[in-house]
Amino acid sequence: MDKEAEAFRILLAEDDPVSRSFLSEVARACGAEVTAVADGTAALAEARRRHFDLLILDHHLPGLHGDRILRALRADPAAPSRAAPALATSAAGDPSVAARLHAAGFAEVLPKPMAFDTLRNALRRFGCGPSSALDDEAALRACGSAQAMTSLRALFAQELAALERELETLRNDATALDERLHRLGASCGFCGAIALAKACARLRDAQAKRDAFDAALAAFRDTLADTRAALAGNQGALEQIHPGFA
Asked: Are 142 and 170 contained in the same domain?
C-alpha cells in the first residue's frame, strides 16, 4: 500500500504564522501529513474537499471561528471530514470559552501558547504517533547481515549519545549542525532509523526558516530520545524475529 495514502492526515487552521509553523512541525514529527491554512473559510473548504483524520482549529480565526467551522462541518452530510475528531486551540483562559467549544463538538481544548509535549501527547491520544523508530528489515537489507547490522547499531547508539550531549552547542553553529545532520542521515539509512532520518531532514530544512527551527529542534530531540530507547531495547526483539542472529 502507498505510504503516503497511509499517512495520518491533519487539517490545521491557525492564523498566526509562528504558531502555525510550530504546530505543523510538531504534527509532522509525530508522523502526520499536515494541511495548514490561515483562516476559517479555507479550513471549512478543505474539510469539505477531502478526508482528514484530525482537525486542529484555532478558536479565533479570520472568516469563521473554530466553533462555527465545526458546526457547519457536522451539519454537512457530504463533507468527507464531517465525523473527524477535532481539537481546538485557544489563548483564552475563560472557562466559558472552553465550554462553548466543547458544546460545538471539540473533543479537547488546548491552551496557547503550547509546549511541544502538550500537542504531541494530544496527537497520540487520537492515534497519531511517530513511525516505528527502527525498521529492522530495511537495516538488514542495507547492512547485508544481522551481524553487520548489530555492529553498526552499536556504533550508531554511541553516535546518538554524543550528539545528544553536543546538540545545545551545535544549535548555535549552523554550518557545524548541518554537517553533523548530513552524516547522521547516512547513518540512519544503514541502521533503519526511519523516524530519526525524517526528523533530521526536517531540521536541516528548518535552518533556513528561523520561525520553524525551534519546533523542528524540539521534534528532533524527541525523536532522538525515542531512537536511543529503541536501540537499547532492540536486541531482544531481533532475537525473536531472527533466531540466532548474533
From this structure: yes
pLDDT tens digits along 132-150: 678 888 888 888 888 888 8
What percent of the chain has a predicted confidence (pLDDT) above 70? 90
User: Domain range holding 74?
Assistant: 3-125
Residues 158-200 pLDDT 10s: 999 999 999 999 988 989 999 999 999 999 999 999 889 988 9
Given this model, what pLDDT does residue 237 score? Answer: 47
Identity of the amino acid at 66: G
- 148 & 235 share domain: yes
Contact 36, 111 (CB under 8 A): no
> Is the peptide bond prior to 113 cis by the omega test (within 30 degrees of 0)?
yes
Chosen domain end from 71, 90, 125: 125
Question: How many angstroms separate the Cα of 159 from the Cα of each of 132, 184, 187, 193?
Answer: 20, 9, 9, 13
Q: What is the pLDDT of residues 97-141, one digit of tens each?
A: 889 999 999 999 999 888 888 888 899 889 887 656 788 888 888
Q: How many domains does one find in the chain? A: 2
Give the Cα-Cα-Cα angle 73, 75, 78 (nearest 5 degrees): 75
Interior/surface letters 8-32, b for 16+ CB within 10 angstroms, e for the rest: bbbbbbbeeeebbbbbbbbbbbbbb
What's the sign of the alpha-carbon dihedral 76, 82, 83, 88?
A: negative
Question: Who wins on pLDDT, 97 or 235?
Answer: 97
- From the list 184, 152, 151, 153, the residue with the least C-alpha distance to 166 is 184
Contact 138, 188 (CB under 8 A): no
**Cα–Cα dist 206/26, whole Å:** 13
